[in-house]
Write a sequence for this structure.
């Protein structure tokens, strides 16, 4: 599943589609890709069509990218694999839609199609073979043969609704634990995520000393918070230079002074380069300054600084919702009235550590296994 021949993964400038005609469409006009997505998420794909045991169908994708995220399958080795699933009426659409060369589809582990219409010599693999992409290849799940080529059978399966419970293990979190305990569990994960960042900051200090560690943390934070806006190397360097001027010759000492004020706004404004909005400055301070300050408090045994950083973390402004945690937030909700940054960071930690690695049912939000 992971490897694909380089010849299949690379675009061929000399490829001539006219030499490899695609068979005439055999899909009825009424059938849409969303029906395949519904069939998959409801757990109604016939087991005979699946090349691997499906442990978790995943969740619907949002925005650009694969149709389904974080599905989990069981490999023949007994190891689970979690990744994305892309849906098409025809297997050739993967190439036609430009997915083969798109990094957004590099984590696709299964390609679900109504019919595998790929002719011999097709750039996207021959009929019955995996679909190649930048991340390797994805076995094709062809639905039509299992349903005798009749779209009405697919529609009937979708109409039956979810197979099994139809819910994720964390879906009843608030009903099971109460809103306060549910929020507390998520915030604990946010504290763990921050502690991991502080540990990494300390490791950078051990290797590069304080100025070098700060330079690396700041560079990464500014780069990561650019979002979808394009920033040239010159713009990026200008941001770093502006922050350096604001903090002076002793950036760590200045950050410590700002942190002892124990007000998030003081630390956020301390790294707010010209052109930064409050949200971006808050992210830079959270991702670069706060972990370094926690590392400093630990290394020097500075209890007052440790208390100040703990208060900062607790009072940090709530960021805008993260798109990648939308599904998890909906399952774990309703969110507390004032969620805070630790709640948002907790969702990110759960998403990265459990949801995307096949840990559904075993994460801290899932019910404890019965004895």
């Amino acid at each position: 599943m992971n490897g694909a021949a380089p010849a299949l993964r690379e675009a061929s400038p000399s490829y001539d589609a006219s030499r490899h005609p695609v068979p005439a469409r055999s899909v009825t006009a009424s059938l849409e890709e969303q029906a395949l997505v519904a069939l998959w998420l409801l757990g109604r794909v016939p087991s005979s069509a699946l090349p691997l045991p499906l442990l978790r169908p995943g969740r619907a994708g949002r925005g650009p990218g694969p149709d389904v995220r974080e599905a989990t399958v069981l490999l023949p080795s007994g190891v689970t694999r979690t990744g994305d699933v892309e849906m098409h009426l025809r297997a050739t659409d993967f190439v036609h839609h430009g997915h083969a060369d798109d990094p957004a589809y590099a984590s696709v582990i299964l390609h679900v199609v109504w019919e595998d219409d790929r002719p011999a010599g097709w750039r996207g693999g021959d009929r019955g073979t995996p679909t190649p992409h930048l991340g390797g290849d994805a076995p094709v799940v062809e639905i039509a043969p299992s349903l005798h080529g009749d779209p009405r059978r697919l529609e009937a399966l979708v109409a039956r609704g979810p197979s099994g419970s139809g819910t994720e293990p964390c879906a009843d979190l608030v009903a099971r634990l109460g809103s306060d305990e549910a929020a507390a569990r998520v915030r604990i994960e946010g504290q763990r995520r921050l502690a991991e960042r502080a540990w990494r900051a300390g490791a950078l200090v051990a290797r590069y000393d304080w100025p070098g560690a700060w330079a690396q943390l700041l560079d990464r934070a500014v780069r990561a918070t650019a979002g979808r806006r394009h920033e040239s190397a010159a713009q990026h360097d200008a941001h770093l230079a502006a922050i350096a001027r604001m903090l002076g010759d002793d950036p760590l000492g200045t950050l410590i002074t700002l942190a002892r004020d124990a007000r998030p706004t003081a630390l956020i404004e301390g790294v707010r380069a010209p052109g930064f909005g409050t949200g971006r400055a808050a992210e830079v301070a959270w991702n670069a300054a706060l972990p370094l300050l926690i590392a400093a408090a630990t290394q020097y045994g500075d209890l007052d600084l440790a208390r100040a950083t703990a208060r900062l973390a607790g009072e940090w402004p709530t960021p805008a919702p993260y798109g990648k945690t939308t599904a998890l937030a909906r399952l774990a909700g309703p969110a507390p009235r004032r969620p805070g940054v630790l709640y948002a960071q907790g969702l990110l930690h759960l998403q990265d550590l459990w949801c995307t690695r096949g840990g559904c049912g075993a994460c801290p939000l899932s019910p404890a296994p019965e004895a």
Remarks:
- Strands lie at 54-56, 59-60, 68-74, 80-90, 108-115, 131-133, 136-138, 140-142.
- The chain has two domains: 6-159, 173-357.
- The radius of gyration is 25 Å.
